[in-house]
Amino acid sequence: MSVGAEEGRVRVVRAGARIDAELDREERLFAAAVACGAPARTRLSLATALAHNLGDLSRVVDAWPKAVAGHDYRARYSRLGHADGAHHRPAFVLAGELNRDIMALENHRFLALRKPRALRRSRDLLLPVGPWFDDWGELIGRSTLLDDRDRAEVVSALIELHLSSPRQEGCLRALAGIHRTTRGGLASYVPELPARVRKEALRGRIREAIDVSPEHFEARMEKRLLARAWYA
Q: Under 8 Å CB-to-CB from 134, ≥6 apart: which residues?
């Protein structure tokens, strides 16, 4: 074996060891949260992060060249969160199922939020894991990084998200948070909204969401998690 090939093999082995250590760490965190009955927000957020990480890992190793044992690593790290994966683990499969059945819709592309450019001013304005956007909505409502025109653009984008995906809860929770922290509530932004979304700002599920407290919503998510017979 040439020196170059040997160095490549050593790097691959080291990379594999680091990947294994990270997988073990994430598995322990998620399994511990499940075992101790952590709040739904904790369990579901961890499940989402873990499922996304496993999916990214699977896609990456699928592209590794055979010259650096790519075939072996594809078999070792592909589809770890799927029951049909050759090396799946129960905690990983559970995370994948929770993400698929509860969280995937809540953390899909938020394309409409690319339009309000003011959200790019600070990392503090980044979205958290959905659907828990109440605190984020309150931040938008009070942040000194934004003016009322910026906030109106965010409100418009959130309404567009709701109209494009009516079952998604996160955008509604964000609107409820903005409403709570704005003098006059969402109604104060209506004059600045595009005509196509103006009439939607204070009716239907948006109106209902405004009346639901963060605590009530948390309880609702707990029930939704526990209602999964396969999870219980």
A: 173, 174, 176, 177, 214, 217
